[in-house]
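::Amino acid chain::
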Amino acid sequence: MKRALLVTLLAAGGCKSGTLNSGEWGKLRYFGELSGVAPVLDTDDDLQLPLELIPPVSDRSGNVYVLHERSTNDSVVYVGEALGGWSRGCPPQENPLPHRAAGEAHVHGFLGTSEDMAWFWAGDALVQVSGATGECKQVLDKDPLTLTDLRVVAALPYVHETPARRTLNAWVQGSNDAQSRNPPYQVVVDLDLRRYVSYAPFEPAEATCVDVLGVGANAEHEEGVVVVAYNLDGARVAEARKINPEGMTTDRITLELGDTDPFVCDARDAEDTPEPKILGQLQANDAGIYAGLLSNGQLLSFHTGGGSAKDLPNFDVQGMVKQDGALWVTGTADGRPVAGEVIGAGMVSSVIRWKASERAAANLQGSVEILDERYSPAEPVRWTNPVTAIGSWPFVTPHPLDVYAIETTGWLIAGPSFESIETRTAVAFGPVGMTVP
């Protein structure tokens, strides 16, 4: 149903033969003014805060979800209805995770969608959003038995759907345990009941100074993955753990991330984990090779036999993208967008100019028509030379991209900025044709 509806909407937006060509935009929908400036317009001289947005997702009914990280260390989610109009924005009232380092992302990303619902992880909360009403609420705020206030320290971005229920895996802790970096519990969350239905303690039980470095998933293999570091027997251990829909750990992969000296996490100044964190989410190709960007600029890649952090000197690495079963590392070289495929056991091939990204940016030049859906009835307006609202080029992001339609994803663009107490920027959503590289 979603594909048929979206083809109709795309055709109405001016695309050819019901689909969009590579780099071609469909109807652009202005939905709000958000705090921050487009990242490509941010400079060290004016010290303006950049927009903190991740790529939007869509559900099977064609609703669109936009997630914004605000300067107040919380988030707000907007829902665009398939046939027009947007919700006012819903803040889920989450808290930052303990030990969040300065500059570290508060919004961790979308976890999945269904018929008319989406889920995301932000701060210490797992949140569901209704596509029908725009309402958002925390799924797992308290322990159902003890009423302990829970911190979601990992939520794996794979929603497993059966005729009976929808579930995903998460790691949770009480507030005190999270502050002390004690081992978390691994739980299976029933998203319809909004509580966990099974749990298992962290192993090894004697681990200390436990830090979640990032999460990812491989929907084709029906698994999520969490990267974790901890102290054990006088050494620092880093692992990637694969978890199936039943909440069982099916593989533990040793990772080489640098120093193996133990982390003294009870020291007063020990706020930041010594390991780099994963930016966005890990993704996997059809061969089961996972890869993701690290906060120190390296690439983490691994498979069943092991993995490590790698330097990529040939270009400025900024993102990941998966298409047709292949996984690509994206970024810039000589100021232009490029992509290199993840091959073999996790190496990256020679990079290629990413023409789809260049075309998408070029097609925003000049006077661009935008449908202003902030009010009803919607009216067309024109923006002059809008730019990408995410990253340095369209499609360049460490977060997974939505499959909005055939060879089409959704993206956000930034228009005019307005000065008030803080800079606010007009933002619009639009479908755009994408091929890789």
Q: What stands out?
A: DSSP finds three helices and 31 strands in the chain. The longest helix spans residues 2-12. The first strand starts at residue 29 and ends at 35.
